[in-house]
Specification:
8 helices; 7-stranded mixed beta sheet; globular; alpha/beta; 11 strands; 2 domains; 251 residues; Rossmann fold; 31% strand
């Protein structure tokens, strides 16, 4: 088991705590993606693969809008959580355990749209591994289809290489919840430690570790074009309302 699987398996039962209201977030993000899909000529008949679905934050919201959604992830723990949440929300999603670096090992069909949200691609710690992931993903998209992904604004972050992220503080019925990350940089890679602190009737501290590589937008654009995409556009948060820059690539 690699560090990414360990990170997300551990986070599975805690991931929703990164949001003030996870249920509302699934609906809000689905509407943002729905708008992007419609702008690019796709309606609810589109078959979507969420290839880094986590606990289902985007997949469940999109299925709730009526999309045909397949969802996969490398983390068995997060897949189990996503399946439970899909059932709780009354939506039908086909789930598969899959590595987005080798999607053809699991999927024989191609999809109208593939998404990889919430900074999933920067888990690739070298340009070669990112290129492999991009090729795996674009090969599973139908001609004329879309790839939609979000990453942190590393173009800006690399200017200062901050040692931590700003904390999120959420009031709860019994106190408050605080989450933040520390970042230890080595060139363009960084070791991330995620803290989730429940300061309620009893104090609980959860700590998870992972690694990322700061991926510049130009680098990902070049790899998508080399991987067979004909058009690549970036949309920033002020345009979409999403909390990270989003890339929209036409296959």
């Amino acid at each position: 088991m690699n560090i990414v699987q360990t990170f997300y398996d551990g986070m599975a039962s805690q991931y929703d705590k990164l949001f003030f209201d996870w249920e509302s977030t699934t609906k809000e993000q689905a509407e943002i993606l729905n708008k992007l899909f419609k702008e690019n000529g796709f309606g609810h008949t589109a078959h979507i693969l969420d290839c880094a679905c986590g606990i289902g934050t985007q997949a469940i919201g999109l299925a709730g809008l009526g999309y045909n959604v397949t969802a996969s992830d490398i983390s068995g723990g997060e897949l189990a959580e996503a399946k439970k949440r899909a059932a709780d929300n009354g939506v039908k999603i086909h789930f598969e355990h899959a590595d987005y670096c080798a999607l053809s090992d699991t999927f024989k069909e191609q999809f109208d749209i593939i998404i990889a949200m919430d900074n999933a691609l920067p888990h690739m710690l070298s340009e070669d591994s990112l290129e492999k992931a991009v090729k795996s993903i674009t090969d599973q998209i139908k001609s004329g289809g879309l790839f939609v992904a979000s990453i942190r604004d590393y173009d800006d972050l690399l200017k200062k290489k901050p040692p931590y992220s700003a904390p999120y503080i959420h009031k709860t019925a019994k106190g408050q919840r605080v989450s933040f990350q520390t970042w230890r940089w080595t060139d363009e890679n960084y070791h991330l430690t995620q803290y989730i602190i429940d300061d309620e009737s009893t104090l609980q501290i959860h700590r998870f570790e992972c690694e990322y590589r700061a991926t510049r937008r130009a680098e990902l654009t070049d790899l998508l074009l080399a991987g067979g995409c004909t058009k690549v556009l970036w949309k920033l948060p002020e345009e979409t309302g999403f909390y990270q820059p989003i890339v929209v690539a036409r296959r």
